[in-house]
Amino acid sequence: MAHAYTSGLRVSPRTVVARTRRLPLSGQVLVDVGDRVRPDTVVAETHLPGPVHNVNVTNALAIVPEEVPGCMLKQRDEPVAKGELIAESKGIFGLFKSSVRCPESGTIEMVSEVTGQVLIREPSTPVRINAYLDGTVTETLPGEGVVVETAGACIQGIFGVGGETHAPIRQIVQSPEDEVTGEMINDRLRGRIVCCGSMITLDALRKLIEVGASGVVVGGMRYHDIGDLLGYQIGVAVTGGEDIGLTMIVTEGFGRLPMAERTFELLRSMQDREASLSGATQIRAGVIRPEIIIRSNGDEASADQASSDRAAPAGRGLEAGSLVRLIREPWFGELATVASLPEQPVRLPTGAFARVLEARRTNGALVTVPRANVEIVET
Amino acid sequence: MSLPTEINVILATDCGSTTTKAILIERRDGAYRLVVRGEAPTTVEAPFEDVTRGVLNAVREVEEQSGREILDGERIVSPAEGGRGVDIYVSTSSAGGGLQMMVAGVVKSMTAESAERAALGAGAIVMETLASNDGRLPHERIERIRQLRPDMILLSGGVDGGTKSHVVEMAELIAAADPRPRLGSGYDLPVIYAGNADAREDIARILTERTELSQVDNLRPVLEAENLGPAREQIHTLFMEHVMAQAPGYGDLMAWTHVPIMPTPGAVGRMVRVVAERSGIDVLGVDIGGATTDVFSVFGGAFNRTVSANLGMSYSISNVLTEAGLENIARWLPFEMSDADLKDRMGNKMIRPTSIPQTMEELIIEQAVAREALRLAFEQHRNFAVELKGVQQLRTISDTFDQQTGGRTLVDLLNLDLIIGSGGVLSHAPSRAQAALMMVDAFQPEGITNLAVDSIFMMPHLGVLSTVHETAALEVFDRDCLVHLGPCVAPVGTGSPGAPCATVKARTDDAEWTHEAAVGELVAIPAGEAEEVALEVSPSRGFDAGAGRGVTVARTVRSGPLGVIIDTRSRPLQHPEDATERIETLQRDYHALDLFPESG
After folding, report:
1. Do B95 and A354 touch (CB under 8 A)?
2. Engineered SS bond to A257: which of A155, A243, A252, B244, CB 3.0-4.6 Å?
3. In this predicted complex, what is the ipTM?
């Protein structure tokens, strides 16, 4: 077999990207197919049921639960205001009455004669989702959301932290090998997506947050720096909800790793262009990678349909000549070209047998690598 | 689907989160044997969203390897006719995240714990355990119920005839949260009520409108006993009828199988139980995966399962780092490495979970992580597998100075007969000796304990098969599934390093060994692999090999790749604090056992 399938990260200057924007609960779609949307255009909204508060009427009135319904001044489904009387005991000959006031405004949800509890639900809170991309609505999902599509550049990272944002790109290094340190950060990076090289120090990250940068894209960073920044270690790669003031995307991995030349050059060519950025990562079944998406300004050639989401293949062929990244020691981070794909499993230096490929490194050396340890460089 | 009277050809699949594994079993010369195994990526998620695609692909691989025609287009041919088709087809599933449950009870350490045991035993991942005394305010419980979107809820609480207000209150909170199921939107969330029988009417009134309520016998009818069977069976039924029916393609798959699809861990647990019951032994089983580690045990006939949801070798590897601490992982490395480098390597494995170690250094790091993941998962299991709490105890004068409060762990390592390891890092370790030592270091067995691994992760298939054909399941288990790694002899007691610990005599048909074991050793008697060995362990005064201090134990065992392992290191294991000394000790032990042949 001279052909195999492997995962890869997309780095494409011209593609069509479609993103489904879905509400957490059924709601209302606010745009139509064909509408032109900006990243912050609200495309759908819904209302989340409000928090529930319980009041122990039995205790408050010193009565048994069965008596609670008879003491209620407000009934199920009735609206109530904060501080309003909701229950009152009968007292002795109408005197010495005890009463219960409502702790929050809302609606009486339930009155229990078994436990003597009364549940009050606060008014619902609105939830809106925006378009995220600068593009066009291509599909509406009634009651659920929309699909937004745009043509442009798409770069996937390997790991991200933080949610969605959009801002202009600013590359601040000259080479993918360069490291970004604290003294390179200044106020002019406020509201920018800062693109770096092989590494960013913790000090520089903290300064970026301080000056109000919107995001950072970097080849590598120290794993424990993320923990220092968040205040806790990320144990499982399911991210996107962190709130540290900016969105981070690592394109290669942990450690000092030069950003792939192709990624670096693509970001350089997009200097000052507005990009949509998402740090959401999910490395489990149903994988989600962090991404940078930049809408085409019309100067670039038309989108390459073969690499678009609409034409996305289930897996991409790995064959002689394929460009791959080596994703494990001893050549972690290096690029190589597949020379051959031997069919029979080969004994590795660990003693394990695995299916391998032979690859030529950029220095010309031919090496044997487990197929599981390469990532195709998708273009 | 009716079962054929004679079963000679069996097809079994396990639909995992990432891979669907199929095995073909045939009866040959009067015995059931594994013929071939095939696998293919699971296809529950986009772009396929149909589990049967992956099953068909895995079965096609079985067809190619065995030469047996099993499929007619996209239909499994059954019953078998000549060299075509299979007599029965069975399957397990953990795809799409497996069965995710929330459980609730009244008292955290009593009915809520019993409910958790029932759910875990049925093969579920317990996302949350709620109890009236869990320290949370009612609105916090409601928020939690709403945030989680479980596949089903198990509600228990109260003994039969006891007070019902607390369990009713819990039902009210569930109703107020109006929970939605994880999969599908067109049906109500299944809720099983297995609490105080007197509260059934109230529970029905509160929950029927908003949930798909079913009621079974109380899982804690009296404080002194659990009755988990009805709740477990109902979980399996609802798993099939509701959860699986919502998952893409499972409708078809359910129609293909001859018996209900089981959750994968439920099937593994069943197999562990069957093995323990057959031989009347105490068994510990562990399955270490990429995201989670499951531990199963049968001690004194009591079955327990725990799942450590975030201890795993790839997706959750960084969580092992967080929970174990860097120093605990580094203590297993026979070389120096900076903290930052070690953390980066684990982070990189987390984000590229399918990559495999190519260098010996990387392999040793992964096996160090495995030791800690297994140790932590076992610790959790030990704390969970306990006697029932809240049971009134009869005390005598002799208990004056030894008053236990109940809830003692059932895990008794001195009486443990067999540890079965499963999961990639154990089953696919480059050498079986490495797998054996990972288990010894993680579980730190005591007395004489046999070690084994599941050769190709077949226990789920055999577990579900055992529901219809226990003989076939056990025959394949003995002949093709279990790989014996030999016994570990570990007399327990205290002594200075180098002091006499035990005399170990081993005899095979061809040879005889006598080893005077001193405290602090890790050595092996090279008895040759898979030999029957007559073992006699005479512990020194103050040491116990399983029959009491100083009492000789004689047993016939099957040797493993290292022969017979003798481990007289302290319990719990302690490493030298000085890094250089620690590294030297590890290098000496690993070299003596020839554990990493090319590591020098």
Report:
1. no
2. A252
3. 0.85
Among A115, A159, A347, A374, the strongest candidate for a mutation testing the B interface, having the largest count of B CBs within 10 A, is A115
Shared domain for A284 and A157, answered yes or no, is yes
Query: Are A291 and A166 in a shared domain?
Result: yes
Residue B220 predicted with pLDDT over 90:
yes
Which CATH number fits the domain B9-95, given the four candidates 3.30.420.40, 3.40.190.10, 3.40.50.720, 3.40.50.150? 3.30.420.40
Cα distance between residue B273 and residue B281, in whole Å: 10
Sheet holding B9-15, edge to edge: B31-41, B19-28, B9-15, B88-93, B262-263
Q: pLDDT band at B586, cuts 50/70/90?
A: very high
Of residues B392 and B28, more confidently modeled: B28
Last residue of a domain, one of A303, A323, A352: A303
User: Which residues 4-23 of A are in CB contact (within 8 Å) with B?
Assistant: 7
Say which residue, B394 or B250, is predicted with more confidence: B250
A300 has pLDDT over 50 = yes
Identify which of B17, B146, B321 has the shortest CB distance to residue A285.
B17
Q: How big is the A-B interface in CB pairs under 8 Å?
A: 170
A216/A260 same-domain check: yes
Structure letter (DSSP) for residue B13: E
Total domains in chain A come to 3
Residue ranges covered by each domain of chain B: 9-95, 98-251
Q: Which of residues 181-220 of A touch B (CB under 8 A)?
A: none
Residues A163, A299, single domain; the answer is yes
In a domain, A133, yes or no: no
Banded model confidence at residue A4, pLDDT cuts 50, 70, 90: very low
On the CB side of B575, how many CA atoms lie within 13 Å of its CA? Answer: 21
Instruction: Name which of A26, A110, A233 is nearest B322 (Cβ-Cβ).
Output: A233
Q: What are the pLDDT digits (tens) for A114-169? A: 888 898 888 888 889 999 999 999 999 998 899 999 999 999 999 999 999 999 99
| DSSP codes, A304-336 | -GGGSGGG--SSEEEETT-EEEE-STTSTT-EE
A359 and A243 assigned to the same domain: no
Q: Mutate one of A66, A236, A310, A374 to test the B interface: name it (highest B CB count within 10 A).
A: A236
Cα torsion B270, B271, B276, B277 to 10°: value is 60
Residues A223 and A342 in one domain: no
Contacts of A324 (CB under 8 A, 6+ apart): A6, A318, A335, A336, A337, A338, A357, A359, A374, A375, A376, A377
**To probe the interface with A, which of B170, B344, B362 has the most A CB atoms within 10 Å?**
B344
What six digits make up the tokens of A239? 């991210």
Sign of the CA dihedral running B553, B554, B558, B563: positive
- B99-105, strands of its sheet edge to edge: B124-131, B99-105, B152-155, B190-193, B212-215
Q: A138 in a domain, yes or no?
A: no
Q: Token pair for residue A173? A: 């290094």
Q: What is the pLDDT of residues A265-291, one digit of tens each?
A: 999 999 999 999 999 998 866 678 999
d(C-alpha B533, C-alpha B566), whole Å: 14
Identify the domain boundary among A257, A279, A303. Answer: A303
Q: CATH number of the domain at A260, please.
A: 3.50.30.10
What residues make up the domain containing A325? 313-378
Determine, for residues B340 and A369 on separate chains, whether the beta-carbon distance falls below 8 Å: no
User: Mean pLDDT in chain B?
Assistant: 90
* CB-closest option in B202, B316, B359 to A329: B359
What gap in Å lies between CA B307 and CA B289, rounded to an integer? 11
CB contact under 8 A, A236 and B291: yes
According to CATH, what is the number of the domain B98-251?
3.40.50.2300
Task: Write down the residue that tokens 């390179």 correspond to.
Answer: A184
> Tell me: the pLDDT tens digits for B46-85?
667 788 999 999 999 999 999 999 999 999 999 998 889 9
